Amino acid sequence: MFERFAVEARNTVVRSVEVAGRRGDRRLGTEHLLLAALADDGIASALGVDAATAETAADAADREALAQIGVDVAAYGPLVHAVGTPRPRLTAGGKVVMKRTLEYAVVERSRRIELSHLVLALLERPAPDPAAALLSRLGVDATRARSALQRG
Predict the structure, then answer these.
(1) Whole-angstrom Cα distance, residue 74 to residue 84?
(2) What residue stretches are annotated with the Clp R domain (predicted)?
(3) 6-41 pLDDT per residue, tens
(4) By three-state DSSP, how is residue 5 classified?
(5) 130-138 vs 115-123: helix axis angle to the nearest 10?
(6) Which residues contact 146 (CB under 8 A, 6 or more apart)?
């Protein structure tokens, strides 16, 4: 399936692996795909949020979740990542997004899987999916974003 990805979509998936590694996550989830997709100006415009704002919101959500179980992130200093860690596997939600991405391309009779197909699949994730939670935290109007993406 990866060979059908348009360059922007392929680069986003590759970037999502980097995002997961940078965030210290062992699995590649929908939040990593979303954060990577927002590096594209067209996607950021359609969703009404930029990558830096989304990264900040994701970091804040992580800190809040850890604080709820009594972990003060500030007490630990910067996170150090192991070099040469294996490529993360997709979460169940990530697998569903990839499947839906392909389905969007098929419905449109597109020969390529475009970045917009990936983002449309992310926009339909239900709570408590991490991408859905991040989109909600950012105040993204999924209906408006979907419409902007489908207009091109």
Answers:
(1) 26
(2) 2-152
(3) 999 999 999 999 999 988 889 999 999 999 999 999
(4) strand
(5) 90
(6) 120, 123
Enumerate the domain spans of the chain: 2-151
78's tokens: 């910067």
CA–CA dist 49, 63 (Å, integer): 21
CATH fold label, 2-151: Double Clp-N motif (1.10.1780)
Single out the residue of 80, 61, 68 nearest to residue 129, CA to CA: 61
| Residues above pLDDT 70, as percent of the chain | 93
Q: Which of 45, 49, 36 is nearest to 8 (CA)?
A: 36
Compute the distance between CA of residue 123 and CA of residue 121 in angstroms, rounded to an integer.
Answer: 5
CA angle (119 as vertex; 97, 63 as ends), nearest 5: 80
Pairwise CA distance, residues 140 & 123, whole Å: 9
Say if residues 133 and 61 touch (Cβ distance below 8 Å).
yes
Phi then psi for 90, rounded to 5 degrees? -70, 140
